[in-house]
Amino acid sequence: MANTLDSSGGCNKSWSSIHCNLAHVYRKQNLFDKSLLHFNKVLRINNKDVNVHSAIGLIYLKLGKVSKAIEVLHVALSILPNDPIALDLLDKALESNLRVSTKKLLNDDLLATPGSKDQLSNKSIGGGRRRTGRGNSTSELGSSSSVYRRIKEIKKWWC
User: Fold this and answer.
1) Which of 58, 76, 79, 103 could form an S-S bond across to 86 if both were Cys, CB 3.0 to 4.6 Å?
2) pLDDT-derived band of residue 16, with 50, 70 and 90 as boundaries?
3) How many domains does the chain have?
4) Would the pLDDT of 142 be above 70?
């Protein structure tokens, strides 16, 4: 009897359903490692399940592994290009990736600015010159205002 279940694929389908349900339970309990383990068992049985790939993408998003989430969600969309769940999750993953990249870019730009270490430690920049009230001196205020202008430009572009 066990051989007939294996040869007909019924046993695999049953195991796939069991592992998928367990994976969703673990995901809802924030036990992501166990969830991924069971979702991967489902994929070994049937690697063309868009819902499983989408759920794995969601887990990677929750773990902060945005690149991995994007990769898995692309696999899901290669199976079913108009899947609304995979599309929505991919949008969120790409937005998250953009936010992280923009933040890193701004931090790198701020750190690359001459005298930025002094600026970050609340010291004056520009060779120790202090603001004299004239518009032509280099000061902490002048430098940070250019950073704020760049942030505003990026926000306009991004939103």
Assistant:
1) 76
2) very high
3) 1
4) no
Amino acid at 128: G
Question: Residue with structure tokens 């195991």?
Answer: 15
Please check whether residue 130 lies inside any domain of the structure.
yes
How many residues make up the chain in this entry?
A: 159
Look at residue 20 and tell me whether its pLDDT is greater than 90.
yes
Residue 156, in any domain of the structure: yes
Rounded to the nearest 10 degrees, how much is the dihedral formed by the CA atoms of 93, 99, 100, 106? 160
| Per-residue pLDDT, 158 | 54
Q: Residue 148 sits in which domain range?
A: 113-159
The pLDDT tens digits for 77-126 are 999 999 999 999 999 999 988 888 777 777 776 666 655 444 444 444 44
